[in-house]
Amino acid sequence: MTDKKYRVLVVEDEPSICQVCLRTLESMGLDVTIAINGQIGQSLIQQEIFTQINPE
Hints:
By secondary structure, this protein is of the alpha+beta class. It contains two helices and two strands. The protein has a two-stranded parallel ribbon with strand order 1-2. The radius of gyration is 12 Å and the shape is flat.
């Protein structure tokens, strides 16, 4: 069985929320990338492959 690490992109401009998301998702074994605004998030989506994208 392959241990696949899921990649998650969090787009959030509030640093404290970013930290909570990062700690929580990493504790679940996920590979987390944080973008501090939508423009950076859009750029990352074009450059990298993420497991799932959930628009707010």
